[in-house]
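ESCALATION

Customer reports they have been waiting on this structure for their group meeting. Please prioritize. Original submission:
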Amino acid sequence: MDVNSMAILILLGSFFLMIMLRFPIAYAVALSSVFCLMAQGLPLTTICQQMVKGISSFSLMAVPFFITMGCLMGSGGISEKLIALANACVGWMRGGMAMVNIVASYFFGGISGSASADTASLGSILIPMMVDQGYDGDFSTAVTITSSCEGLLVPPSHNMVIYATTAGGISVGSLFLAGYVPGALLAASLMVGSYIISVKRNYPKGDKFSMKNLLKQLSVSFWALAAVLIVVFGVVGGVFTATESAAVAVIYSLIVSVFIYKGLDWKGVWRVLGECVDTLSIVLILIATSSIFGYCLTRLHVPDLAAQAIVGLTDNPILIALLLNLILLVLGCIMDMAPIILIATPILLPIATSIGIDPIQFGIMVVLNCGIGLLTPPVGAVLFIGSAVAKIPMEKVVKATLPFYLCMIITLLLITFVPGISLWLPSVFAH
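Update from on-call: job pushed to the front of the queue and completed.
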């Protein structure tokens, strides 16, 4: 075995071994990279150089701002207003509260950009509310955790910024636009699944539809939804860069949360900023350590070898596309979202583009695959949060989620094989 093959074996073998031993992911990524560099006889100063290089990116500055915006909006009393708006839109249907949950996640996801924040914030309000109205607890939790993945697709999603930076040369504005239709498609498929189950179990309907109530709730929620418009149209229209729009959105969120909705006082703002620092430190450590890992992968030509191996199995584009999704789904079962984007993108993106998948479309595929991974044992963070919020055993939640996994897989396949779902909106604004 030559030095390169031995280094690849050490890098990937030690990484997956540490994952199985439940090492924190940042340590697993960093240590496996250190072992790999030592096996090649390279200086360990490379680690510091690559870590600094990994986080010295102007576009990555958008990530802390989007996380701060999400925390401020999530703690500023916005959840209840978005639930009321969703109820005015779809609460009249059979299984109305399930529909409200799904639509509220679409609205809230556009503000928080985080499935975990969505589950914790909306779940703590909606799950008890649904149970009180006669819905089963496990069904209520399953609807909450699956619909939270809409927030990963609907802009502004900081995971899309991470993907754009990792993929290189991809417009953040185009990625943001590309997420709207897939997010709506995911919401629609979950609503169909919820409706079928609601009819079967005879879950209640809500109040009759009222245009007057809808307009009233829309006027109340306007200030919250405007934050998304500032970011997306600012970036797409060329008024701001993604980083500048995120900074403007933080100031706007602060004003709305403190002065308009009055859900936060200044003491609460400092508490929220503390939570942001906790979240941000985890994300930045992952980006820094993944940069070393990516350096090792590139130096050892792992992306080329992976491409040759996959193309060697089959040259059928449909099978290759399915295989890419399968790899991402399996990684989602054992790793968190940011490291998958950082590690898998350099390896899988060249394979995807070689079979005609647009980098923007592939970004949406990666984000949705990672979202499904957040709901699957053994590492599914959103699954654990939903289970903890509802106080229901994880096994029971997984069983109730099975029909919704099917809805999400159908959505994923449509996004994979119908490029227009992701690319239509960016193409409209490009002209």
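Sent to customer with the following note: The two ends are 53 Å apart (CA to CA).
Escalation resolved.
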